[in-house]
Amino acid sequence: MLALSNDPVWFCLRAEPKREHLAAVALRRRFGIECLSPRLRFRKLTQRGPVWFVEAMFPGYLFAKFVYGEQHRAVESSHGIRGIVHFGDRLATLSEDIMVALQSRVGAEEIVTVDSSIKIGQPVQITEGAFQGLEGVVTHLLPAKERVRVLHDGSHSE
To answer: Where are the beta strands (DSSP E) in 99-144?
Structure first.
């Protein structure tokens, strides 16, 4: 169906690790394709003291809106792109509503500054998503792939 459509659709693309933003820039410049490669800006303690880091919000992935039948070959062969994410025969597409919400959240610079004041042992409440309302305790602060691990005692949920 996508091969026959003339309407642009948002796709999830696999990108070379740590090059997601550069791959998005290449798609924009070379093909005029609308892309979104959101990044997180956060402070991390190092041996030199606190240092600001910027890394992909979705490591190894970015989003691009294009007409599949006309542009998929160009997109897949573009610098830094490893392919379109798929599940079996089904390509990973995203709704316009989801992408508009994500774009409004990250802004024109595509960067979200994360409050790094979360500490191990701190009680937290999940405010969005499938686990909204659940409470837990931060047990680990993790790198990009996992972000934060929370211990949740299931005996207190309804």
So the answer is: 111-113, 123-125, 135-141
Tens digits of per-residue pLDDT, 12-23? Answer: 999 999 999 999
Highest mean pLDDT among 47-51, 103-107, 115-119: 103-107
The two tokens of residue 90 are 């089904």
Residues 78 and 6: beta-carbon distance below 8 Å: no
Block residue for tokens 């509503």: 97
Yes or no: say if 120 and 139 are a contact pair by the CB < 8 Å rule: yes
Q: What Å distances lie between residue 154 and 34, 129, 132, CA to CA?
A: 42, 17, 14
Bridge partners of residue 123, in order along the sequence: 137
Phi-psi region at 70: left, alpha or beta (left = phi > 0; alpha = psi -120 to 50): alpha
Beta-carbon-side half-sphere exposure of residue 126 (alpha carbons within 13 Å): 16
Rounded Cα distance between 16 and 156, Å, is 42
Q: Are 138 and 150 spatial neighbours (Cβ–Cβ below 8 Å)? A: yes
pLDDT digits (tens, 9 = 90+) for 116-142: 666 778 787 777 777 778 888 877 766
